Amino acid sequence: MDKPPKNPTSQIETPTPKSKVEDSPVFNYISNLSPIEPVKSISNTQTFSSLSFTSPPPVFTSPHPNSHKESRFFRCHNFVDRSKPLESLEGTDFKEEVVVSGIEDLNKEASLEDEEETSIETSSELPQILKSESQTPDHSDSPCTEDVLVEALFDPPRGDGDSGLSSEDVKMLVVREENDTPDCGRLISDANELLVFRSPNDSEAFRCLVDKISSSERRFCAGVKSTKQLDINKDNPANGSSNEHEPLAILPNESVFNLHRGGMRRRCLDFEMPGRRKKDVADDDQQSVCDNKAAGESSSRCVVPEIQKSFSGSTTPIHSQDAVQETSDQAENEPVEEVPKALVFPELNLGSLKKKMRVSEQGGEGESCKRCNCKKSKCLKLYCECFAAGVYCIEPCSCVDCFNKPIHEETVLATRKQIESRNPLAFAPKVIRSADSIMEAGDDASKTPASARHKRGCNCKKSNCLKKYCECYQGGVGCSINCRCEGCKNAFGRKEGSLLVIMESKQEEDQETYEKRTAKIQHNIEVSKEVEQNPSSDQPSTPLPPYRHLVIHQPFLSKNRLPPTQFFLGTGSSSFRKPDTDLTQSRNEKKPLETATEDKTEIMPEILINSSSIANIKAISPNSKRVSPPHLGSSESGSILGKRSHGRKLILRSIPAFPSLNQNQ
DNA sequence: GAGTTTGAAACT
DNA sequence: CAGTTTCAAACTC
């Protein structure tokens, strides 16, 4: 085995060719430790594509052979149903799987990643444990340790020459398998973050891993929590490197895990506040987001950890219990001492995002989270921002006769159901950002507000869509054909003509203008975006609403086929409003599809989003035409709102049948 | 902080 | 489905 010392930074770097991997210090280290030589994976012609990276293939199926093939080993995580504990992966089985996957992989497509993984896996079979900083020789010695190391690279910027991992860039979690058969330590390198889990609970640990592994998700998570982790590490370097399991494990788990569940924290939470760092994780979780922002600030609605989940918007019910539990875990045993002021409803939908969005936007800018001020609705109607956001009212709320409290959980849920029965998407985010923007964040086009749209469109009569009365404006998105507004002057994008097509023609002109405007406006919002988007910085100043979370997920969904859509769709999605759209679109002159290939991928997410959120909407008024949810998978069909100077603009295509999200491939 | 305006949500 | 009412946020002063 040749392991010429190489640049440490390259080790797990994304597209590392196999050789690089071997060259990586880590690899070397492992090699040294183990008597066994790593098997070299078959070289592949395939290169590691960035796309693959971003797309975590989370498939909710439990790991099975296929899964293994594709992703090996830890990749399996991606395929594993998040909701489920990785039981299958645990213990010996896990080990076996790894081996198998490695073999299969050889036969199959081997991308660089695969190669890396393969090599790693192989090595993993060896009794080595990789530790970055705190590695103890002990581990290396023992052939099989109970500790399993999982490495996931989080931050691209890795390359820590020092001791392997810098506390900042790397988080380590050590998972200790106590119960299952001892497993040899494995090194898993997945994208960016190095995680070593050591936790009493295997399943959990794995979950975390799994979750984390999906790169896209990772971002997502990262946005949400990774920052925390980083902070934590910074604050307490020891945590990062050492064995302190709890704290470490906790965060990741939670964040990731929660996310899967659909849990998201409010945007405001996402923002790292200087003050926040100081706080413990536990605090963070327990404390409201607002707290993070500024302890001094008027508290806003404090979001408890649960809230994070709330964002999930998943149909899957979120149990506060879980949240609590997780929280406590995260907090390192710290029980949730404080009763969360704002709790997320057990079941939350993405819908809540809206409010959150607002909050975040505002909050992001420095405004603290807001509280409701309901007098008559008892906070059980969508009038109530808290309720609409899927969170319980908290002390700071000025509501009267509030029933939106944990105490009245049943009532809240019942009401919620009722509302959802009326409008399944009532709690879904109102603003949908197209995947395009996200995907293309780098592009100018992505900056276009047009990329995001209000699901139902506004109905402004007097505000000219220039005030927050306008939901489109409020959401930082331009008006679209879906809007029935009058005298639209939405700075984020006016509703041009009745047809999107028209927009195409015009947009080029307007777009620039919009973008400029938007850029400013959004500038404030960017922070939140960053979280979700690639840390890579492409973050354009798109006026995106907080919903981005959703969007972010989308990529997975589409590519990976993640069922997360399920989250969104939740309620019985009956027909995805295709009829409307179809008709509308087709009628509206549709241009055959112009969708560029690029669009496809990008579109997918959007589609998912739309479909998820929009699909079920009944709330479409006949008058307004809305963009129909594009087809998933099929690159062919889809509507694209985003507009580019050239080709892509709004393309409306009649869409045949709407494929089920699940199917979306 | 009180009052007005506005448009979504809810109701009929 | 359209029209009306209710509601609370957004806005103004």
Automatic annotation (TrEMBL):
Residues 8-17, 311-328 have a biased composition (Polar residues). One of its GO terms (cellular component) is nucleus. Residues 368-493 form the CRC domain. It is found in: Nucleus. SMART domains: CXC. Residues 1-23, 48-67, 106-144, 311-336, 527-547, 568-597, 621-644 are annotated as: Disordered. Residues 577-597 have a biased composition (Basic and acidic residues). The keyword Nucleus applies. Keywords: Developmental protein, Nucleus. Belongs to the lin-54 family. This is CRC domain-containing protein TSO1. It comes from Cardamine amara subsp. amara.
